[in-house]
Amino acid sequence: MNTLKEIIARCETLAFDLNFTRAKEWKSQDTSRVLVGQMPVYFPREIVHAVNGLTVGILGGGNKKLIIKGDAYYQSYICHIPRSIIELALDKHFEGFDGFIFPSICDVIRNLSGMFQLMGEGKFVKYLDLPQNFKPHIGGEFYLQELRDILNKIYQVNHVEVTPERLNNSIRLFNKNRSLINRIYDIRQEFPWRMTAADLYHIVRAGYVIPVEEHNEILEQVVGLIQQDCGDSMDKIRVLVIGAFCEQPPAGLIRTIELAGCYIVEDDFLLGARWIQGDVDATTDDPLRALANAYLEQSTFSSSVFDVDNPKEARLLNLIRKRKVDGVIFAAPSFCDPALLDHPILQKECNEKNIRFISFLYSENTGQFKVIKEQVGTFSDSIKLWDEPVLSAGI
Amino acid sequence: MSTEVAKERSMIIQKEMITRLFKELSNARETGKKVVYTFVPGNISELILSFGMLPVYPEINALQSGMRKKSGGYIRDAEQHGHSEDVCTYVKCDVGMMLNGNIGPTGEKIPDPDLLLLSYTGCFTFLKWFETLKRLYPGVEVALLHTPYQEGHEITPEMTEYMVRQLKEEVIPKMEKVSGNKYDEEKLKSNLRNSSKVEDYIIKIFDTTKHRPSPIDAYFAGVYYIGPINSGFRGTKEAVDYYAELYKEILTRIDNKLGPITPEGEMEKERFRLVVEGPPNWTHFREFWKLFYDMGAVIVASSYTKVGGVYDMGFRVNPDKPLESLAEYCMNCYTNLNLQQRVELLSKCITDYHADGFLVNSIKSCNSFSAGQLMIMQQLERKLEIPIGFIESDLVDPRYFSYSNIKNRLESFFQMLEQRKMILNSA
User: Fold this and answer.
1) Which residues are CB-contacts of A373 (< 8 A; sequence separation ≥ 6)?
2) How far apart are CA A247 and CA B389, in angstroms?
3) Are B192 and B325 spatial neighbours (Cβ–Cβ below 8 Å)?
4) In chain A, what residues touch B148 (CB-CB under 8 Å)?
């Protein structure tokens, strides 16, 4: 059994290995294996797993990749993540990848899919048009067609056919994965001092670049370790961080928030790993439809999903209640239309319900956190010194 | 610059049409007509009109506010209400306009919507925009029409089927509920017949830039030409008449070997022929245009005039398949094309209209256009060996229009074109 420290160190290395060494090594062991790169946010990785593939999260270069060529592809007023992804592509980090999936989350990622097509990256590039209609016979049927199209593209590469047994098995593995991640979040809600939010971030992010079976083993060990009492509780407020749904904050930013007097007990970093709420049915004869239904009925809230029948502010309040937070930190990437256009809506609700919040912008390669530390520190102090607990505010 | 704007007869007709529409909108509560807010790309006005409802286009209101120098204040008001400096200024301008009483270009109040029709084509921000509007107009019915992106360079039967189902089961029932009228397919077909005629005229009109000198400017004047079909007259007899008149005028200009008409009269000598990618700046529209016609530069094709529909590749609405046709029309709008299709279309324009150069006006607010433009430039440069120019501005935020920067860049670009012409001529 490894120590928590050892596991975290390994996960941090895996999470920021921009050469995707473990994934490529996994592929090299069997000629029918495929690697499929996935941009944020959500993609049902089960279908790739079921046809002998590994979905690899392409989450940008963060502050680990110096951007030189990528800036020549994007104007200054476009967010940072596409330029680091282009830089990675041009520097051949994706060599050995068979295909790329671009889920429909915004215009920048959509057009990046076209750039990958023009650059001839991989054997296929698929813009996955996630339906905004949530009726099974309308949006569901369209989504099924999109998933079949991806399976067909992978079949052209490795000639592995999906079967209900294989797909149900994959669904079970990813159900377990989500369940274990959620279990860690639940334990951290009670005992946030047992593991930092940055450490949790590395553990979840490692799951984007290794086989789900290996990640489940890691998660099981982590759950076992943090169930035991360790560390000391500190006088910090409990916060929810929201806005990061695509471009990831630098780990230094996550650490800064916790060092400045907060426990992050809920966040939307790496949202795709927890997108489906609850288990997907792994017992049907039509598991592809089960996955489609899960998307339609069990999706979490995100800036990329039209919320007309399921208002995001109500869901934010539920999350605040569930996690018993003292305040909300809106932290979004610069120039991110989907996240930033949500903020006035969510902040209005916070104001009306007397929920304290602060807001700032970052980019994946932000390197200076002093101003943010002061802002978060003041926020934390003001809540500790002056505020009633949020739950008594009657939200 | 002259303060008197020279106007063609068709411009006067258009102004009268739009004034009538806004008058009708301001009287909508009295006349009992229901009002539908929707967007220009993928605007299914034929269907809206078939229910006897009136369309309102928030992005048209925003650009009108930009031209009337109101947008700066509206944007600041929206930012004071929590909107970020980083996001789409059309959205902020619209929110600010609403906060200031929703007064339209004719000075009359635009009525609140009875239906928010989110026909979500080629721009993800539309979706976020209507989430905002939904909260500004609580209780109003919302219908969503999700238009699949042409990611695979084509429209598949499944994509069309998805849209037709949405029309049948989501959009039409909401329209019936709001308007109190039953769906009338014959009326829709009749409207589509008008659209089909208008689409033919639009192609003929924009094709006249093949002539030398080009009788029209396909960008600055082009945005007026696409006005009626994009602002409530799609599917009407008035639109057919307007485009017939416009085409007649242009043919007369060709016969007389006249260049485009500008706000200061005829453009005398055509020196440069350009294809432009990206929307124009609205807050300094005339100054912007003047930078071109002063240098004898005429725009022979632009992607922006295709934002409300692309007809160059042969698509026409088919009245015999009305819902399928609406679906395919939505999927064929410019920003719903993938980058490769955009490169092919722009390449065709550059070749067919004998352009001397290609210019990108990159808009801070509009990722749907802007993200990928630099790669489009590279591709065209490589494929056609054509000189490429690049300027930046914004749709309706006056803070992002830097006259001297744009002028400097354009002057350098025109010098480059001039030199290239000299070299080619001497060769």
Assistant:
1) A256, A259, A260
2) 30
3) yes
4) 129, 142
| Cβ under 8 Å to B: A residues 322-381 | 334-338, 340-345, 347-348, 361
Q: Output DSSP code: residue B169.
A: I
The residues pairing with A57 across neighbouring beta strands, listed in sequence order, are A38
CA A379 to chain centre: 26
| Cα distance between residue B198 and residue A285, in whole Å | 51
Contact criterion met (CB < 8 Å) for A337 and B165: no
> Which value does ipTM take for this structure?
0.95
Residue B177 near residue B141 (C-beta atoms within 8 A): yes
Element (H, E) at B262: strand B261-262
- pLDDT tens digit at each of 427 positions of chain B: 445 555 678 888 998 999 899 899 999 999 999 999 999 999 999 999 999 999 999 999 999 999 999 999 999 999 999 999 999 999 999 999 999 999 987 888 999 999 999 998 999 999 999 999 999 999 999 999 999 999 999 999 999 999 999 999 999 999 999 999 999 999 999 999 999 999 999 999 999 999 999 999 999 999 999 999 998 899 999 999 999 999 999 999 999 999 999 999 999 899 999 999 999 999 999 999 999 999 999 999 999 999 999 999 889 999 999 999 999 999 999 999 999 999 999 999 999 999 999 999 999 999 999 999 999 999 999 999 999 999 999 999 999 999 999 999 999 999 999 999 999 888 7
- Reference A19, options A162, A206, A209; nearest CA is A209
CA-based nearest residue in chain A for residue B170: A133
Kindly write down the DSSP assignment for every residue of A134-167, as one continuous string.
Answer: --IIIIIHHHHHHHHHHHHHHHHHH-PPP-HHHH
Residue in A105, A118, A335 closest to B375 by CB: A118
Q: Do B86 and A112 touch (CB under 8 A)?
A: no
A141 touches chain B (CB under 8 A): yes
Specify whether the CB–CB gap between B126 and B120 falls below 8 A. Answer: yes
> Taking CB atoms and an 8 Å limit, are A110 and B124 in contact across chains?
yes
CB contact under 8 A, B370 and A77: yes
CA distance A87 to A65: 8
For chain A positions 47-76, those within 8 Å of chain B (CB to CB) are 72-75
Tokens read off for B30? 């009295």
Residues 290-329 of A with CB under 8 A from B: 303-304, 306-308, 312
Chain A residues closer than 8 Å to B154 by CB: none
Q: Are B166 and A133 inside 8 Å of each other by CB?
A: yes
Q: Which of B208, B260, B204, B239 is nearest to B14 (CA)?
A: B239
C-beta neighbour count of B314 within 10 angstroms: 8
Q: Residue B78: what are its φ and ψ, rounded to 5°?
A: -65, -40
Give me the phi and psi of B348, to 5 degrees please. -60, -45
pLDDT in tens, B292-341: 999 999 999 999 999 999 999 889 999 999 999 999 999 999 999 999 99
CA distances from B362 to A320, A393, B289, B392 (A): 40, 47, 16, 5
**Mean pLDDT, residues A51-78 taken together:** 96
DSSP three-state, residue B2 = coil
pLDDT digits (tens, 9 = 90+) for B363-379: 999 999 999 999 999 99
Cβ contacts of A51-54, under 8 Å, gap ≥ 24:
A51/A151, A51/A154, A51/A155, A51/A158, A51/A160, A51/A161, A51/A162, A51/A166, A52/A158, A52/A160, A53/A98, A53/A154, A53/A158, A54/A23, A54/A26, A54/A27, A54/A211
Residues A133, B144: C-beta atoms closer than 8 Å: yes
State the residue for tokens 């955009």.
B342
Domain range A18-165, CATH class:
alpha beta
pTM, rounded to two decimals: 0.95
What's CA B14's distance to the chain center, in Å?
15
